[in-house]
Amino acid sequence: MRWSNFREAHAASVADAGSMQRVLAPARVKGSQSITVYGSVVGAIIIALSPALFFSFGYHNDFNAWGYDTHACCTSHPETHMLHGIGRYLGAYAENLQFFTIHNLADLWIWRFVGILSVAALAVYYLRIVSLRRPPSWQNALLTIALFTLPTMQFQAVWVSMYMFWAPPILLSLAAGHSLLAASDGYPFSKRDEVKRSANLTVRAFILLFAGLCFYPMSATFLLVPTTHLLLSKNNGRFRLVAVGATVILGSAFVTYFAVHKFIVLPHLGNVPNLGEYGFTFTARLLTEAAWRIAIYFEVAQYFWIGFEMPWFPKIVSLIAVVGIVFCFVRLAVRSISIPELVNLLMACCLFVVAATPLLIVQQFTQTFRVTFTMTGIALLVFYWLLSQPPIRTLPVASLLAVLGVGSAFASVYGTASSANAEYVLDKGAVAGATPDEFHPIVVLRPVRARRAFGLDLRNDFGWLSPIDQIFDLLIAPRYKGRVAFAVDTALERSDASLPVLEKGGTIIDTSRIYGLPNITDFSRFATVSARPRGGPGPMNAVDGDSNTFWEVCNQTFPMVLELDLPAAHTFSGYTLSTSEAPQRMPSAWEIWATSDRTHWRRLQEVTHGAPWKRGESRHFDVEPTSGVTGVKLVITATSDAACMRLYEFRPMY
Predict the structure, then answer these.
(1) pLDDT score for 13
(2) Which residues pair with 645 in a beta bridge?
(3) Structural domains of the chain sorted by starting position, each given as residue range(s) with its CATH number in brackets
(4) CA 280, CA 594: separation in Å to the nearest integer?
(5) How many Å apart are CA 246 and CA 221, to the nearest integer?
C-alpha cells in the first residue's frame, strides 16, 4: 500500500470515528439522564420509608416469629393452615421460609431494610415498563414516586410478616404486564411466527398472574396499574389492546384460581380453621355487593397516601376532581379533546372495577389499606389525568403529588414505627425480671382509639394494630420450649360508667400515653376478677361485656370459681349468663355467693339442674336484693360436657 493511500485511509477512519463520537454523545447524555431519573426515584422512596430503620420493634403478628420453630420447615408458622384454606399456598410457604431467618429484633430490622429496597426496586421496574424501555421522563418518574409511597408500600417498611404478600406477587404482576406489552409489540397478528410469539408471551403472563394470586390475590391485580398509566398517557390503540388483554388474562387466571381452590384443593385440606371473613366464597348478590363494597372503598380508603385521620382531605380531592371533570367537558365542547382519549379514560375507570373483583370473593379485602393498592393506584392516575385538563403545566402537578407522597409517607411511617417501638419498650419494662418457669397473668390496658402521631390519629392499619400476645414469647418465655409462661388479656378503657374489669394480681401495662392520653393512676375504680382454677382463656373474658369471648377450664375437677371484687358497695339483685358457640360447655349447675367484707360469704342462690343451653342464648336470674355487696362469686359445680367448662358472659346486676 502506498503511503498516500494509507494516509487517506487513516484520515477516513478518523473521520468515521469522529462521526461515531457525535452519534454516541447524545446516547451517553441520555444514559446519564436515565441514571439520574432512576436514582431520584430510588432515593425519594428510601427517604420516605427510612424512619422505620431508626426504631427497634415488631409490628402486630411479626411476633409470631417467636412461636416459630426454625428447627422444622416449612409448616410451623401458626397461620399456615389458614393461608392454605384461603388459597395463599405460595404465600404460606414463602412466609415460613422468611420466618426461618428471623431469630431476634435485629433480623426484623434487616427484613424492614429488605422491604424498603424491594419497594425501590419495584418502582424502578414499574418506571421501566411505563417508559417502554426508553429513557424515562420526569413526569413518569414523579408519578412512580407518588404510587410507590402509597400505604401498602409504606407497610413494606413496617410490617415484616406481610412482606411475602406484597413484594413477590407485585413483582410477578409487573412481569406479567411486561410480557403482555411485549406480546403487543409490532404486528402480533401479521405472521405465523408473530402469532406464536405473542401466544407464548400471553401464556407466560397467565402463569405469572396465577402464581401471584397464590401469594395474595389483591396484590396480583397490580398488573392493571401500569396498564392504566399507559392508557392515560399514550393515545395509542396498542395500549387499549393491552388493557383488554390484561383484563381477560387476569379474569381467566382468577376464575381458574377460584375453581381450583374451591373445588379441588379446599375439599382435600385437613385441619382448616374457621376462616370467618377470610372465607373464599363468591357473593350471591353480585351487583348489589359490588356496588356496596366499592362504596366502602371510597368511604374508608380514598385517602390515597395519607395515613392519618384527616376528614377534610377527601373533600379537597373530590373538589379538585370535579374541577377536572368540568374542564374535561369544556374541552369536549370546544373539541380540543379527542374521542380516543375519552375512551382511554373510560377504560381506566373500568380497570378500577376489575381491580375490585377480589372484593366480591373475600369480605376482609374491603376493610384495610393494605389490600387496595391497585384500586388506589388507578384512582391516583385518573386523578392526575383530571388535574391535567385545566390549562396548567402537568410537570409541577406531578411534582406536587410526589412531594406529598414522600412527605406523608415519611410522617405516617415515622408515627407507626415510633408508636410500635414505644409499646415494645413499655411491654419489655413491665415484665422485666419475670421468670419463664412461673405463670404470669398480664393485662394490657388499651384505649378504644387509634394511636397518634404529630397530633393526629393514625388511620386504620397504621393506628389500630397492636402487638399480638406472642410479644411475651420474646420477652419472657424461652423459645421452642413449649411452656406457657403467661396469659394476656386486653382491657379496653371506656367511660367511668363502664370501666373494664381487671384480673386480680395481673401485671398491668397501661398504653394510654401511646394513644395521646394520660396514664391511669387510680386503679381503685376498677373491679377485679379471679378464678380457681384460672384456665385459659382467662376469667377477664367472662366479664368483658363481649359474648364472643369466654373463660374456659378443661380437664380440671369441679367446683370452678369465678370471683368478682367490686370497687364500692352495691345492691346486688340478679345476674345474666350468656353463651355463643359450644353451649354444652356452659354451666348446668352453679351457686351464687355474695360478701360485704370479702371475708364472710353468704349463698344467695343454688341451681342444680339448669336447662340445656342454646347457641347465642342469654338468661337472666333474679336473687334476693342484697345491699352493701363488695364481692360476688359464681361457683360452677357441673356442665353437660364433662371435659371442659366454658363461660361466655357473667354480668351481675347492681
Answers:
(1) 46
(2) 553
(3) 37-414 (no CATH), 527-654 (2.60.120.260)
(4) 49
(5) 10
